[in-house]
Each structure stands twice: as structure tokens, then as C-alpha cells.
Design a protein that fits this description.
Two copies of one chain form a homodimer. Chain A is an alpha/beta fold. Chain A folds into two domains: 71 residues, Orthogonal Bundle (Arc Repressor Mutant, subunit A); 117 residues, Rossmann fold. Chain A is built from ten helices and eight strands. Chain A has a six-stranded parallel sheet, sandwiched between helices. A two-stranded antiparallel sheet of chain A has the order 1-2. The longest helix of chain A has 19 residues. The radius of gyration of chain A is 19 Å and the shape is globular. The mean pLDDT of chain A is 87. At the A-B interface, helix 1, helix 5, helix 6, strand 8 and helix 10 of A face helix 1, helix 5, helix 6, strand 8 and helix 10 of B.
């Protein structure tokens, strides 16, 4: 995977954003996009776009812009999203249910293949309407077995904070590679597991910093 | 507000994370914390912690560490979270409901004072149990009037993607200062309004990048 240089975090974030914009463009039938157009849609300046794209060599057509399809291909290759990633969600309350129905996951090859809760009787009826396939919610006692059997690589934690560490431990024992924690509490994982937190207060703090300064 | 130097985005993110850790420490009754302890809890290295704290001058006590209370005070002052911010949420589906019940918002002076949906008959019964006070869900037609009357400064959008731009326009007309968009689509706002997107695919892209590289 050492085809591309190591990329700064901020660039990774922007690449992810470009990818989303390019998908929107592709859906609208656009085949070619200038850096100016991409910049406009993504709320970035055009010089930044060109600088970011320079990370993976020259492939824009001078005076024409970039091939939307080719650009998507390269960004997905860099990010590692050019293949399916199998995901499990634990904690099917409001947030867990929202994630199960998040349509953009499918667009990006993120496939939720297992869902767990302490109350397995919950059935998210309308998922079947939204993404075409209902998902059975299993009791958390089955996590380790099912995560292994279904080749889950990434675990999402959407439990209340007091449960989050226990769930993280189960995911680690089941050999997931990455954990995304939505529970507003710090959890610990061994260094070979990649952990990312999604704290909604952090997003608001960032917004408020820019409103205040 | 020019008391502190402009801070890089990555530092803003870490400050927000430190703040969360410090709140956890304070709840546990800790009065003083070393940079090593803060680093451990926040999954950052200690040198990074000391470097970040240097942005707001020297106030650690050599050999003792930092006063948890004082540190919280400074970080909140820098971020601008040292006062109440009044928030409205539009789109009370699963994600909107999750945000209405997000306990950490209150800890950080983020106060949700209005909630809107196209179906105002929805009542989130269990909010009353969770955060002590039920919130009435109003019809979206009342957004402009209510947002102004309740001095809302920040709008959260948790509608389906096709509704997001319309809601953003309403928020702008109602003079909110900042918008946080959770709908997985790009929206546009005038330059005097601060916009932040929370796309769950972006968080997963970042995780996957680190799993792949």
C-alpha cells in the first residue's frame, strides 16, 4: 500500500469530502469536472483542490479538468475505500437505527452486516423499505461468534456511555481491525486496533470556535 | 476575542477532546492532572499535550501538573464554549431524536431550545426521563418565528438530504450564525454563516485510510 505518500489528516478529510462531491456529480451525469467546479461544490478554494490532487500525480487534462470517474477511482484507492468493508453496529437506539439506515454507507462500500443490542426483540421495520433489506438485531451475547463468522472488520459503538468499554473489549476479542465510537466517553483499545471517536460536542466546539474568533 | 493567537484546526479538535477528558476527571473528583495523565486518557502523546497547552501561556505548576478546573476554564474560553449556545434541531427522525437526548450537549452549555419536523405530532416521550425536560416538536412552518423569538444561534439539520437546503435557507433567513448539517448532502450558505458538515462516511473514510496504510 506504499503506492502513495503518507497524507496529512486534513487532506484525508478533504479527499473524503471530494469523493462525496464527485459522487453527486456522477449521479447528475457529469463526466468531467474542473478544479474550480469541485472547489465550488465542496466549499474549498480551487488552489487547495489542485494541491490535494497533486498528491497522486498528474492526471487532470489541461484546460479540460478531471475525469470524474478516474478521480473517484484514485481517491478511493488512496483512502482504501475501493473495496467492501464489513461493519457491525452495537446499540440499536436512535443513533444506531440512524446508522443502519444511512444510505451513504452503501454508496461507499460500507456494508453493515450485523447489528446487536441487549434487547434483541427490537426490529427496525422500516429499514426494509429504506435500503431494501431488513437486518436482524441479535443479542449482544452473540457478538464474538457472529462478528467472526461474518468477517466484520469495523465495529460501531452506539451504546450508552457506561456500556461502551465492554462492547469495545468484545470487538477486540472478536478481532475487528477498527472501532468507531459514538458513545460520548473515552474508551481504550490495544494499539493494533484503530479507534476513532465521533463526539457531537466536538463538532459543535469547532463550529463555536469559528463563530467566536 | 483576539486574546489568543489563531489556532490550527487540528489543535481546536484536540482542545475539544481535552475538554471532554477534563470533565471526566473532574467528575471523578480529580483536582490536578499531569500532561502524562491527560495524554493517556485522551490517546495523545504527552509532548503534544504540552505543546497544545502552550498556546495559552504557562499555567501548569512545575512537577505538579495542571489544575483541572483552571485548564477547563482556559480551554472553554479559547473555544468560545464558556457561555450558553442556543440550538434548534430540524428533522426529528432517529438522528434528530438522538441529538435531542445527547447528554453531553448540556455539560458543554449547548442548549437545544427548539425542535421542528414536518410532522409536529411526534412527541419524544422519553426525553423527559433522560434530560429532565420534554421538548415540544413544532411544525417547520414556525421555524423562522420561533428561532428568532428563542434567540437560536445554531441550527442542526437532521432531515433527509432532499430537504436539507430548504431548511438551511430558513435558518439563514432566521439569522442563525452557524449551521451543522448532518444530512449527507452538500448545502450552501452565505459566507457570513459558518457551516460544518457531519458526514458519517467521512469518519469511516478516515478510519479505513488508517487501516489501509
Amino acid at each position: 500500500m506504499a503506492k502513495y505518500a503518507k497524507i496529512p489528516e486534513a487532506t484525508v478529510r478533504r479527499l473524503s469530502n471530494y469523493l462525496k462531491c464527485l459522487e453527486d456529480l456522477e449521479q447528475k451525469g457529469e463526466k468531467v469536472a474542473s478544479s474550480a467546479l469541485i472547489a465550488l461544490i465542496c466549499n474549498v478554494n480551487a488552489a487547495q483542490v489542485r494541491k490535494d490532487f497533486a498528491y497522486f500525480g498528474e492526471f487532470g487534462i489541461r484546460g479540460m479538468g478531471y475525469s470524474v470517474n478516474e478521480l473517484r477511482y484514485h481517491i478511493r484507492e488512496i483512502l482504501g475505500t475501493n473495496r467492501e468493508w464489513r461493519i457491525a453496529v452495537v446499540g440499536i437506539g436512535n443513533l444506531g437505527s440512524a446508522l443502519l439506515m444511512y444510505k451513504d454507507f452503501l454508496k461507499q462500500s460500507y456494508k453493515i452486516v450485523a447489528a446487536f443490542d441487549q434487547e434483541p426483540v427490537k426490529v427496525i421495520g422500516h429499514i426494509s423499505e429504506q435500503i431494501g433489506k431488513p437486518i436482524e438485531i441479535l443479542h449482544i451475547d452473540r457478538l464474538k461468534e457472529v462478528v467472526k463468522a461474518r468477517n466484520v472488520e469495523i465495529g460501531l459503538i452506539t451504546t450508552p456511555p457506561p456500556e461502551a468499554q465492554k462492547v469495545a473489549n468484545l470487538f477486540v476479542e472478536a478481532n475487528v481491525k477498527g472501532i468507531m465510537n459514538f458513545a460520548p466517553t473515552q474508551i481504550r483499545v490495544p494499539s493494533h486496533v484503530v479507534l476513532r471517536n465521533v463526539f457531537f460536542t466536538a463538532a459543535l466546539d469547532n463550529l463555536v470556535y469559528h463563530l467566536s474568533n
